[in-house]
């Protein structure tokens, strides 16, 4: 029993599978699976279409591939023994053009059989699956809305209380209110005088200790000294822990986002939507029959103004006012070092399955899937992607530690301003009161002198 298969015209390969002799059992001659036997394409050159300006792949003047997609294609070509011949370049992965009743981009090249593989990562869609084939998805990402980082920031007054849990706040309040009572009891037991003023004095002392203030007079009794030293140490620990926790909250920048979902994006109505031209992201809204998608599509800018690549889209987002971009988070991560402004994302939960695109019913697709599955199982794809991401991070500017901004301490400044204002008001009232009292005394004094005369 032999297996015959052909890769080249007029050339057939023969592989011995088993031997069956009369009056004997069937003897298998190999234990290799189908694609372990056919593990080489014997230097076959596959026609390919190259997607230019793709964030996952690039090619230099010497024809060397780079990027995460380029590295995976290199490893596949080495393992399976084949090479590429770029027959055409295109600017997009391709979408259905209803005006001309045809597919454009890389999909169009594969449909016309001018190429067998698209040299780029491509997102799967049901429309594309009807006309081309995909390898098994080896990257799972999500789609998000990206906008320029808003200038307005939330002033989180609650951060000053979130530094401690509510249980700890309750424990501190109980401690502050019960400790003076215990101190008063100790002072009464030690025959201290002025019992009536001891309670108010003890409360002021406790508040002063927790506000890092000292005592006017340190007690002579050892028991009271020990109690006050314990309170000072407790106040020091609590103050240090509160300061550290509060700083972490104040340096955690909270953006006031105009919307957090597609529904709120439509309700807001002040932003325009963009996607890369001739992309799957555009088809998500343009070809959808869902009411929400149609509403979102009404905010899409004119098709002729759409950016040709995702990077151009991020430049447009940074340079124009109130622009939101719908794109895969994986694309954003790759382009992050080149984005000229700070951006924030709104995660929509839409899943993106990324893979390699081949011509329909391609005879080599099953072999490629077999090796891609092995790459996924042994961690090679994760390693190649991480190497590309680390190279991108090296190019990214170093970001320092977040400093506490003025807006973060507005609550403290507000309390300070209120205190200063109240102090000035009390001061003015006191001055007026004492001036009036002095004037009355002087008037009454002069009146008595005149009567004596």
What does this structure look like?
With 453 residues, this protein is an alpha+beta fold. Helix content is 47%, strand content 19%. It has 16 helices and 16 strands. The strands form 5 sheets. Strands 5, 8, 11, 12, 13, 14, 15 and 16 form an 8-stranded mixed beta sheet that branches. Strands 1-2 form a two-stranded antiparallel ribbon. Strands 3-4 form a two-stranded antiparallel sheet. α2 packs antiparallel against α15 and α6 runs antiparallel to α7. It is elongated. It starts with a strand and ends with a helix. The relative contact order is 0.13. The C terminus is likely disordered.
Rounded to an integer in angstroms, the radius of gyration calculated over CA atoms is 38 Å
Question: Percent range for helical residues?
Answer: 40-55%
Largest beta sheet, briefly?
Answer: 8 strands, mixed
Mean pLDDT: 83
Distance between the termini: 148 Å
List low-confidence stretches: 394-400, 449-453
- Total beta strands: 16
- Give me the number of helical elements: 16
Q: Structural class given helices, strands, pairing?
A: alpha+beta
Strand content: 15-25%
Overall 3D geometry? elongated
């Amino acid at each position: 029993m032999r297996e015959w298969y052909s890769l080249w015209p007029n050339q057939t390969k023969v592989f011995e599978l088993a031997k069956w002799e009369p009056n004997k059992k069937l003897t298998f001659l190999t234990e290799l699976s189908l694609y372990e036997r056919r593990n080489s394409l014997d230097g076959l050159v596959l026609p390919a279409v190259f997607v230019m300006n793709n964030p996952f792949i690039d090619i230099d003047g010497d024809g060397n591939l780079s990027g995460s997609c380029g590295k995976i294609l290199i490893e596949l070509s080495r393992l399976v023994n084949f090479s590429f011949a770029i027959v055409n370049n295109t600017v997009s992965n391709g979408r259905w053009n209803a005006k001309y009743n045809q597919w454009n981009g890389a999909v169009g090249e594969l449909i016309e059989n001018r190429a067998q593989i698209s040299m780029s990562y491509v997102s799967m869609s049901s429309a594309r699956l009807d006309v081309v084939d995909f390898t098994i998805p080896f990257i799972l990402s999500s789609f998000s809305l990206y906008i320029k980082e808003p200038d307005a920031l939330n002033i989180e007054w609650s951060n000053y209380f979130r530094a401690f849990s509510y249980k700890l706040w309750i424990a501190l309040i109980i401690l502050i209110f019960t400790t003076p009572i215990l101190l008063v009891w100790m002072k009464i037991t030690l025959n201290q005088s002025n019992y009536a003023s001891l309670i108010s004095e003890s409360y002021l002392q406790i508040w002063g200790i927790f506000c890092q203030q000292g005592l006017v007079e340190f007690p002579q009794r050892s028991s009271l000294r020990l109690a006050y030293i314990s309170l000072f140490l407790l106040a020091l620990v609590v103050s240090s822990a509160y300061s550290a926790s509060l700083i972490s909250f104040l340096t955690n920048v909270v953006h006031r986002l105009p919307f957090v979902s597609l529904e709120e994006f439509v309700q807001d109505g002040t932003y325009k939507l963009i996607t890369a031209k001739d992309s799957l992201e555009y088809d998500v809204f343009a070809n959808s029959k869902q009411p929400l998608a149609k509403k979102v599509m009404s905010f899409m800018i004119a098709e002729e103004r759409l950016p040709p690549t995702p990077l151009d889209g991020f430049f447009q987002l940074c340079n124009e006012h109130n622009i939101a971009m719908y794109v895969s988070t994986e694309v954003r991560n790759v382009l992050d070092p080149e984005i000229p402004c700070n951006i924030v994302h709104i995660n929509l939960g839409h899943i993106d399955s990324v893979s390699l695109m081949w011509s329909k019913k391609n005879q080599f697709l099953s072999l490629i899937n077999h090796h891609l599955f092995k790459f996924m199982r042994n961690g090679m794809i994760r390693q190649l992607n991480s190497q590309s991401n680390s190279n991108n991070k090296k190019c990214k500017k170093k970001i320092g530690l977040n400093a506490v901004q003025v807006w973060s301490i507005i609550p403290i400044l507000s309390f300070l301003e209120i205190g200063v204002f109240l102090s000035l008001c009390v001061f003015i009232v006191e001055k007026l009161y004492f001036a009036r009292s002095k004037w009355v005394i002087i008037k009454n004094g002069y009146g008595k002198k005149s009567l004596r005369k």
